[in-house]
Amino acid sequence: MMSRWQPALPDAPVAGGRVLVFARQRFFLRGDDMLHPATVLRALPLRSCQVLGYFDGEPIQLAELAELPAVAEGEWVGLRQFMRDDIDPDLFRLLCYGAQIGTWLGQHRFCGSCGGPMAAAPGERAMRCERCDLQHYPRLSPCMITLVTRADEVLLARSSRHAPGMYSTLAGFVEPGETVEQCVVREVFEEVGVQVSELRYMGSQNWPFPHALMLGFHAEYVGGEIVPQPEEIEDARWFAIDRLPALPGRRSIARYLIDRYVAARLGEPLPSMPDW
Question: What is the mean pLDDT of the segment spanning 39-54?
Fold first, then answer.
């Protein structure tokens, strides 16, 4: 089935269309609809505006704001809130894309090489320095996420960023000079002090917080006792698959990795990757 959301180049022609409003690299303006009439641009303190693409065939622009102005109608909502809502997957893809483009625009107003002002490059999604001609493209940060297992047990951890009582899989950013597989082994040992092997790639997920690409793995425990990394991991422990704690939402690849392993151990149908 074709997605209702289709990206396009930022200088695609626009006639009318709708606007997605993004402020302070974090919040969307939600009213009766997430997509506002183009007339909303007249009343907003714009810092930048770019075409994103088309939703249901209608042009969509992103209005990026530096501040969070008071609004007479609607409310400002963080992107994570939409992960918990029963939102249309195609609209959620648009929000994820818009959040990453809006964050990139806000962080690339000036050149990191010479300090000159940046402007949108014609014909592609890029910001070009008007002084030294250096171009910056939307950022993407590769990150591994892995479920460590030991027979009918899974190793889950929690950090201060998690909701109270919630445990999840281990994750970490790929460092320069290492493969994703090397990152899995290193991050697991750094975060919980155990060794793993038999890595299997399970899939990937766009993770717009703010611009990660989550590469999902399953890893088998080899040895070592759990020692949580100070200031990073509050708690980590083995959980039996029939006595799991509160888990991440079903839109997340972390939940998919857990649910898939549990289903496989129980001989049940395997779940599908989250559809967004």
Answer: 90
